[in-house]
Amino acid sequence: MKTAMRNKMRLKKVFGIAAMCLGLNATINAQCSAGFIYTLGSSGVVNFTNTSTVTMGTPTYSWYFGNGTTSNAVSPTDTFQYNGTYNVTLFLNTGSCVDSISQSVTVTNGLTCNIVPSFSYSAGSNGQINFTNTSTNLPTGALYYWGFGDGYSSNLVSPSHEYSLNGSYVAQLSIYNANLTCHSAINQTVTVSNAAICNLSVNYTYTLGSNGQVNFTNSSTGTDSSLNPNWNFGDGTSSTIQSPSHVYTYNGTYYVNLHLGDSLTTCYGSHQDTITITNAPTAPVCNAYFIDSVQANGTVNFTNLSSGTTTNTTYYWTFGNGDTSTLANPSATYTANGVYITYLQINDLTTGCSSTSFDSVFITNLVPSCVPSVSFYMINQDSIAPGTWGIIPNYSSQVTGAMWYWGDGTSTPGLYPSHPYATAGEYNICVRVWSSCGDSAYVCQNDSLFRSTSMIQVNVINTTAGIKTNTQETAQVSIYPNPSNGLFTLQLNNVSAAASKAQISITNVLGDVIYTSQEQITNNVLAKNIDMQNTPNGAYFMKVTIGDKTFTNKTIINK
Q1: Model confidence over 44-89: pLDDT tens digits?
Q2: Which one of 69, 172, 213, 327 is at 20 to 30 Å from 451 when CA atoms are compared?
Q3: Could you report the per-residue pLDDT of 399-442, keeping only the tens digit for each?
Q4: Which letter does DSSP use for residue 297 in this model?
Q5: Which domains does the chain have, with CATH numbers?
Q6: Beta strands of 193-328 (E only): which ranges?
């Protein structure tokens, strides 16, 4: 018998019992304790023996085997189809006591994951390609995912697909078993020669008028009557007129992009040019900045050092503890140790200039309680690696351990784990935390993890070192107002003198790029007005690249 009792993780909450955190063993008065052992059978069968103890109440059991299957039996048996190491978790709940335990179970006498994907194809007429799936060693209930290399996909065994344009495309076939524990993929280049040909050549000319006005002339060729122009003027505004005129509010260098889509052949192209405006007003410049001083008993005094302000400047603070202020130099009181993100937004009614700054505040001088708390939110990390998401946890200082549940039947212990998802979708991600004296907390949220690729990586990020972007030597990137009705300003301050351009890209939660522009940085500052009022409500992710530095911010549109 194998009694893999290592890697044991306990989460405990005893109701009606005052747990005293005085260095004593908190399990002395425990009403329940989860535990199990297991033995390996043949052909991937694993027999689990429940060794939990309960001194009060009627227990219920929830098993998660890490292979996509679950059970509510007292001592279940489960079959692991493929060899590998699985994280098995048992939850015990008596109504007045909750406990759990996780162990790693290694299966070596099941099947080896050896799917051999392959396919052939033949050309039809008008760009049609017929794919034939010739894969071998297929598992029972195999799942198929085809990517045709032109943005389209299929879940059929042997699909057909019509390509709109001639060219070479990389087609991919991915095969999974039913619970996604076995996977393999293959790529192959498909050449299409009997579809439409794209002869589109995108171009435009322009003339400079007075007071920031520019007249554009669309000179593109190779288009048809259903041409759809999309102008991006580089200042956050756009147009769908064939040859528009546009007035720039402020002096500066703007990158104007004309994108054309030909709806009859799905042929598309774009042209970008640089336009410098010198006969409009100069944009106002202001810079939000502050420092903090931590006092006794959780009190923090904030000193406002913002520049470019007037007597008509207003201030809005959020302190990360639920409190706000409109004073120029406020104080805040924190009731628990931890790291808190404080924001300052300034708005000048005279110049119209706005700026936002944020900093992390460390509270360490309070006496901790035994009750932990936890929350988290998701951020897009495509700037680090495509298909990557980050989880920013907010652990209270009492937290000593955590168990993350990924919503796909798997779980991982630890405060800062990582987890790969085999396919995109909506997952109910949960985390349970516990303190050294036995109390625990639990929170869940639904998150949509969508990407064009079939694999997604989620990383829980350690931010205990602080964010500390609020320094005079580091570029500050802010969005205001946030949330907005779709009309907002991107503000860059304290940009390195060596940087002259900023590349801006905004994506939705699906990873689709819905806005892009390249902007000139003047005197280490950029104020960029962006209009997304025609964009649906929701969360969007802005990536700003300055030289070799990349900044990612989240903005909310709520009209």
Answers
A1: 899 999 999 998 888 889 888 877 788 899 999 998 888 888 888 8
A2: 69
A3: 778 888 888 878 888 888 888 877 666 778 888 887 766 567 77
A4: G
A5: 13-107 (2.60.40.10), 119-192 (2.60.40.10), 204-277 (2.60.40.10), 290-363 (2.60.40.10), 374-460 (2.60.40.10), 476-557 (2.60.40.1930)
A6: 204-208, 213-218, 227-232, 238-239, 245-247, 252-262, 267-277, 290-294, 299-304, 313-318, 324-325
